[in-house]
Amino acid sequence: MIKREQEMKSVVKQRMREGTGQVVVKSLMDEGTVSHSRLFAELTIEKGCSIGVHNHVNETEYYWITEGKGIVTEADGEKVVQKGDLVITGGGASHAIRNDEDETLKLMALIILE
Question: Which residues, given as ranges, of the chain have pLDDT below 50?
Answer without folding.
Answer: none
